[in-house]
Structures are given as structure tokens and as C-alpha cells.
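Late entry, written up from scratch paper. The run itself happened at the end of the previous shift, but nothing got recorded in the book at the time, so transcribing now.
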Amino acid sequence: MKIVGLTGGIGSGKSTVANWFAARGIPVLDADQMAREVLTPQHVCDLFGPKFLEHGQINRTKLGEFVFSHPKERAKLEALIHPLIAQKLQEELAKLEQSGCKLVIYEAALIFEKNIPNRFDATILVTAPESIQLDRLLKRGNMTRQEAQKRIQAQMPTAEKAKLATYVVDNSGDLGDLTNSLGQIILALNQ
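Output as recorded:
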């Protein structure tokens, strides 16, 4: 079974790419979804106290604003959650391999930041200019320009990631261009 890491800066369009693969029957494991599943209110309370809990649930918007404004606190959260995600990933990959799956996509923003590209048979980096990333984040409507810029700047620069990626997909054009690029990658991965 081939395992391909899919990454890109926030607002680059990696979810669009993940959806493209999923629409073609290729399983996509989403690190963000896994993080939501493994991070419990108790974890958050143990790390930061009850200030990010509302009605017993994590206020993820408030927590996100906090950790992206406080790098040391973000590091504490990541130190807790990344091993939990890694364990869940291994469980999911084992299930897929047992089912005879030939190709799996693992979508995660921090593949290169966490120095884990060697865990994959290949990596795909989705890119877009920072102005497009910012515009996409602002259109989501759940953060201010300053918050969006903090999140973009918290990640490794795209140029550095591009040096490490097996495939680089420019997602600043139209959907047809993106589809053509992804089709070529699928052909290469199936060889």
C-alpha cells in the first residue's frame, strides 16, 4: 500500500485536493479530523485550565486564537496531540491495508514542519500565493485579517516545503488546471 502525504499552507487548497482524491475512491485520512477526535475537553483542561471549555465542550475557535498567538502554548498542545494522532493514523492505515487498499492520502498541514515526510512513499505540496491564501481565509469568515496572517506565518514558508516535496501542485489557477496536475500525479503514483 502506498501512503502519500498531502500538505500545504492554510488556505492553499489542500482540502480541495483531498476531496478530488476522495471523489475518485482513494481513501483520505485527515489529520485535522483526527485531532478533533483525539483531543478531549479533559486534555485541554489539563493543559490550559477550563477557560477554553463551554458547556463541557472545547471552544476550538477560542483555543485556536490563543495557541496561534502564543507559540509556546501551541508547542505544548502539539506535543500532546501529535502522538495521539500518530497512533490513530497507524490504526486507520492498518485497517485500510487489511482491506486491500493500494493507495491512501494522508492530509496534514505540518508534514514538513514536524519532519515526517520520510514516513510516506511520496508527498504532495499544494501551493498558492500568500495573497490568495489570505483571501481564501477571510472568505471563510471565521477569523480576522490579523489572525489569518498569524496562521499563515506560523507555518514553514512554501519555498522551503517545495524543496522537500515529491510533487508540487500550484492551486492559484482554475479547477481545470488543478485537475490536470492531479491526474498526472495519479498516473505517476500508479506506476
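The two ends are 13 Å apart (CA to CA).
(Scratch paper discarded after transcription.)
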